[in-house]
Specification:
Elements (H helix, E strand, L loop, with lengths): L8 H6 L5 H13 L11 H11 L4 E3 L7 H9 L4 E4 L5 H14 L12 E5 L14 H9 L4 E6 L6 H8 L4 E4 L4
Parallel strand pairs: 1-2, 2-3, 3-4, 4-5
Helix pairs in contact: 4-5
């Protein structure tokens, strides 16, 4: 744990993820409640499982995997919408991930407007204190990478303040991480 009890993302995920046998029942439950079920694959094998066996409707690339280019390439070849979390990525790393998506889909190399790709700002802090959300980055992403959606992958404990402020900065999509 880092200072203040905030865990590093890789340390948290190293403890394990959602077991494969749980995915289908959770998807069924989500569907019965009128919700869309998504799960994030952290390896090519995991992502292929989610696409081919669970039939996820979109692919989430975690911020820690924004430079895992084989994963991003595979995600792009599926034709599914992509949620690209940026975390601690540099603008060059975001640009390269988008270039790979375009290349895999046969699109112009640097024509970044893709209606089925969302770039999500997030902070790699779990939980993220409200005052460290740095929501002005959303505005910067919207102008630097004109995507179909620019939003927030929200790790804050705020149920309403941080998401509302994100919308005020131009977010059109909010992915909210919950801790039960």
């Amino acid at each position: 744990l880092e200072a203040g009890g905030v865990a590093r993302m890789r340390e948290r995920f190293a403890r394990g993820g959602l077991p494969r046998p749980w995915h289908a029942p959770w998807k069924q439950l989500a569907t019965s409640l009128g919700l869309t079920f998504l799960s994030t694959g952290f390896s090519l094998d995991d992502l292929q499982f989610l696409v081919n066996e669970i039939s996820i409707p979109a692919i989430k690339i975690a911020s820690g995997d924004i430079t895992f280019f084989p994963l991003i390439h595979y995600a792009a070849t599926t034709g599914l919408p992509i949620l690209l979390s940026t975390g601690a990525a540099t603008y060059d790393e975001i640009r390269e991930a988008l270039r790979i998506i375009n290349e895999a889909r046969g699109l112009p190399q640097y024509g970044f407007f893709m209606e089925d790709v969302a770039v999500l700002h997030c902070r790699c802090l779990y939980p993220c204190p409200d005052d460290l959300a740095d929501l002005s980055v959303i505005h910067t992403l919207r102008h630097g990478f004109p995507m179909g959606a620019v939003g927030l992958s929200d790790h804050s404990v705020s149920a309403d303040l941080v998401p509302a402020l994100a919308v005020s900065q131009g977010a059109t999509l909010i992915e909210k991480h919950l801790r039960l």
